[in-house]
Automatic annotation (TrEMBL), chain B:
PROSITE patterns: ABC_TM1. Belongs to the binding-protein-dependent transport system permease family. GO terms for cellular component: plasma membrane. GO terms for biological process: alkanesulfonate transmembrane transport. It comes from Nesterenkonia sphaerica. The lineage of its organism: Bacteria, Bacillati, Actinomycetota, Actinomycetes, Micrococcales. The chain crosses the membrane at residues 35-54, 104-123, 135-155, 161-183, 204-234, 254-273. It is found in: Cell membrane. It is a multi-pass membrane protein. This is ABC transporter permease. Its main location: membrane. Residues 1-18 have a biased composition (Polar residues).
Length: 272, 287
């Protein structure tokens, strides 16, 4: 594996990783050839506060990997451990932001966030607590003014922001973003990338994002896992993104290292 | 309406005059269309009554064919005597109507109580559905009236039998529509519910049921109109009070204008029933 530039701080290295992916594989059983892997990973350790992006050509199975991490699909081989325990079912410790907004259409933006909060079996909160907490998280994505609107009254970007607010509200150990900006127009997409950058620098969380956008990956992540093309796609590169935080688009654009990395990523995605 | 898409909250306070003018124009267009449709309706109505009059008046058939004039007389008569209660066999049209409505609503309500939960179950569980599906597919095309003799034999009560027939008429549309609705629920909603670790009760009542509601309402609407169709035929057979019984009685008395009046009333009440249940669709969320 080339380009193994690990740039973890000493404190991160000392601590146990929050998530350990231990060689997971998903595949199918062929009658003649036996088990045929379709998509998989090597061992990956994810440390607290890291922003990890899985990038790969379309159809390589990035989303399947994220679904396995989320516990929505089971791996045929290998295990994923969250804080030491294997993940075998979806959990509130893994906040998911889906590619399309998954807001319940009969609820307002605020009620959608409240729904995520009130279903928590561990903490019972009063109605007022729930509402003010929901407003807090909507404020985080600058949506206080739209809290009472139904999803169909929101633009695509706003819908996705409500989804992000809801995932944050769970206070999960790891946030999983499945091409969260994939369905948006270029302008809104860029706007939300900046907002996401701002959010993850303000709220130090652990993120795993799937995308096929190289610039998005470079802007947001600490580490990029590059998937090869299928069939039997695997992680071919594990790249550290060396740019210091807080990041600015202008500064990145002037950095020759940024363009070098971008070039490298584009080449490995197109298979050159 | 323009929605602010930027991060800065800018409510569209000063809505410009251009959309306002456009809205005014389309309002004008709509009211003009309304005048046209009303005029057209009146024209058709007058034409219809004229043709009716020409074909029936002066016909040498012993007054069997209902003329518009005779029907009008009968209508006013029936409406003035609507609340008449003159012995068990001679009651006003109102009581016939109430009897029919009672049977329909009871049978329909029971069908909904059974079909909605069953539909949710069958829509969720492929295995149970595949096991029960042959029954549904074979029983569904059977005319509800075929159950009538069986009902009489087993229940030994004409009132109960009529309700049972309505039940058999109403259950299939609700069941099929609910199953279909559950299958069409966005699978990501269920993924979301799972990832929130919601319990089964929350998953059913807060996610599955509201998401299926549009399909359920469509099923209820179809079921109610089917029930209203079937009740007239059923009452012709089981007797007692009711619109069907009334129609059959009037036929036996060769009183055809009454039958025309009854048809209009049945149609009107059916229309009102359909419109009332359609109001349920207001509860249904916009996707």
């Amino acid at each position: 594996m080339p380009d193994m530039m690990t740039a973890l701080s000493p404190t991160q290295l000392e601590r146990e990783p929050v998530m350990k992916i231990e060689g997971i594989t998903k595949g199918f059983n062929d009658r003649k050839k036996g088990f045929q892997p379709v998509v998989g990973t090597t061992d990956v350790d994810i440390h607290e506060g890291e922003f990890i992006t899985i990038i790969g050509p379309s159809g390589c199975g990035k989303s399947t990997i994220l679904k396995m991490i989320a516990g929505l699909e089971s791996a045929d081989e290998g295990t994923i451990r969250l804080a030491g325990r294997p993940i075998d079912a979806p959990s509130r410790e893994l906040g998911i932001v889906f590619q399309q907004h998954v807001l319940l259409p009969w609820m307002s933006a605020r009620q959608n966030v409240i729904f995520a909060l009130e279903t928590d079996p561990r903490t019972k909160r009063s109605k007022q607590e729930l509402a003010s907490l929901a407003d807090e998280y909507l404020d985080l994505v600058n949506l206080s003014h739209a809290a009472d609107r139904r999803p169909h009254q929101l633009s695509g970007g706003m819908q996705q922001r409500v989804g992000i607010a809801r995932a944050f509200a769970l206070e999960p150990q790891v946030m999983l973003l499945d091409e969260p900006l994939g369905a948006l127009d270029a302008l809104t997409r860029h706007e939300l990338q900046l907002q996401l950058l701002d959010l993850c620098e303000k709220q130090k969380r652990t993120f795993i994002m799937v995308t096929h956008d190289v610039d998005e990956a470079l802007l947001l992540s600490d580490r990029i896992l590059v998937m090869g093309a299928g069939p039997s796609a695997r992680i071919v590169h594990d790249i550290s993104v060396p740019f210091s935080r807080p990041r600015e688009v202008e500064n990145l654009d002037q950095d020759p290292a940024y363009h070098e990395l971008r070039h490298f990523l584009l080449n490995s995605l197109t298979g050159h | 309406m323009s929605l602010p898409t930027s991060t800065a909250p800018t409510p569209p306070k000063d809505s410009t005059t251009a959309p306002e003018a456009l809205r005014h124009r389309s309002r004008l267009q709509r009211s003009r269309n309304r005048v046209r449709t009303t005029a057209l309706f009146l024209l058709f109505f007058i034409g219809f009554v004229s043709v009716w009059h020409i074909t029936t008046a002066g016909l040498d058939d012993g007054g069997l064919a209902p003329t518009p004039a005779a029907t009008w007389d009968r209508l006013t008569e029936m409406l003035t005597d609507a609340f008449m209660l003159d012995g068990p066999n001679n009651v006003g049209i109102f009581y016939h109507l109430v009897a029919s409505l009672q049977r329909v609503l009871l049978g329909f309500g029971l069908a909904a109580l059974v079909a909605v939960p069953l539909g949710l179950l069958l829509g969720t569980s492929r295995v149970i559905n595949d096991g029960l599906d042959p029954f549904i597919q074979v029983l569904r095309p059977v005319s509800p009236l075929a159950w009538l003799p069986l009902g009489l034999a087993l229940l030994r009560d004409s009132q109960m039998t009529a309700i049972f027939v309505i039940f058999m008429a109403a259950i299939w549309p609700i069941l099929i529509s609910t199953i279909d609705g559950v299958r069409r629920v966005n699978p990501l909603f269920l993924d979301l519910a799972k990832s929130l670790e919601t319990d089964t009760k929350t998953r059913i009542f807060k996610v599955l049921l509201p998401a299926t509601l549009p399909a359920i309402v469509i099923g209820l609407r179809t079921a109610l109109s089917t029930a209203w169709l079937v009740i007239v035929a059923a009452e012709m057979i089981v007797g007692g009070r009711g619109m069907g019984h009334f129609v059959w009685n009037e036929w036996n008395a060769l009183n055809t204008p009454s039958i025309v009046v009854a048809i209009v009333i049945i149609g009107g009440v059916g229309f009102v029933l359909d419109r009332s249940i359609a109001q349920l669709q207001r509860l249904v969320p916009k996707a």
